[in-house]
Structure formats: C-alpha cells, structure tokens
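Worked Example 4.2. Consider the chain below.
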Amino acid sequence: MIRTRIKFCGITRATDAQSACALGVDALGFVFTRRSARFVEPATANAIRRDLPPFVSAVALFMDDDPAWIAHVVSIVAPDLVQFHGSEAALDCARVGRPWIKAVAMASHEDVASYAARYAGASGFLLDAHAVGEQGGSGRRFDWSRVPALDRPVILAGGLDAGNVAEAIVRARPYAVDVSSGIESAPGIKDVARMRDFIAAVKG
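Applying the procedure from the previous section yields the following structure tokens:
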C-alpha cells in the first residue's frame, strides 16, 4: 500500500512547525499572499525553514502575486516547492525556477483534466474546494468522486480534518493530503491535538 503524504499549510509559528515535524509531517506550507489571514513574513518563514529536519519539505504558496514579490520571497526562503493558488499562467509558474504545483479551484473547473493539461510543467496538482479568486483554508470540501486520474500526483485539500480524511483517502486515493483550517484553533494557529489526530487518521 502506497503511503499518503501529509502537508500542513498556513504555518506561521516555529512551535507549530516543530510539533508538526515531531508528529511526522512530510511538508509544511507557508503563505506569502498578504491578503491571507495566514500570511507569514519571509524572514519568519526562513527562520522556521532553517530549523526543519531532513526530508521535511518547505512549500511557498502564492496567489496571483507580483513576480517581483515572488522572486524576493524565493530568494530569502529557498523553498523546496512553490504552490501557485491563483490564475497564474504556466509560463509564470515556470519562471520561478523551482519545482512547482498548481492548485485547481474545484468549484470553478468541471473538466479538471483539461485544466491540468495547460500546466505541463507542474510537479503535481492540488485540488481544493474553493472557486476561482477565492483563497484556500475555508474549511469547505468538494465531492471527492470528482477527483480524476491524472498523469502527475494529486494532492487533496479542502475541508479535511481528522474525522473525514480517512474516508477521503479511501475514496480519492490521492498522493498526498493538505490541511490548514482542520488542524487550527484560529487562522494560522495550529492545535497540537488536532495535528496529532489528523496524522493518526491518515496513517490508520
């Protein structure tokens, strides 16, 4: 059985990152879109990133941000992976010069395979419940039966928590799951018990 990878997104505090790593998370997401409630300054993210143990990936999230800002953040944080959550064109994504994944707004895109075909350079696709122009981390979910078979890894997001992630994995068979609000006590503030329960549910 293939192991389902786990990404905790919206990390803003070193203590949350350390707890997540101790629990066995595979990747941590840092949001660099200023309008997000989970925005983190690049210097703060860099300090957290420097203390990550081996084999825990740092993911930088952007949503229709200015290319100069993206380049600035990448130069400071040096993320392992960049996640584009908006309406960025494939050329804009590739310009960052690092491996990248593209979010798919499932509330707006019916033909996911056709949308994904426009992003041939993506390392994978993150399927989230939001509509185009909306941010992730809303706690909403979508119909998991809509997850298509793609030629690259699929990361499942949107409304996941310890109570439903096992069912989501069984139904959608994603490469990875991504959670933010489902492990929080407030936006950007992670809850250790919820993190622990989420990882236990995935591994179980």
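Strands lie at 5-8, 27-31, 57-62, 81-84, 100-105, 124-128, 154-156, 176-179, 184-186, 189-190. Residues 5-203 form a domain with the TIM Barrel fold (CATH 3.20.20.70). Compare this with Example 4.1 before moving on.
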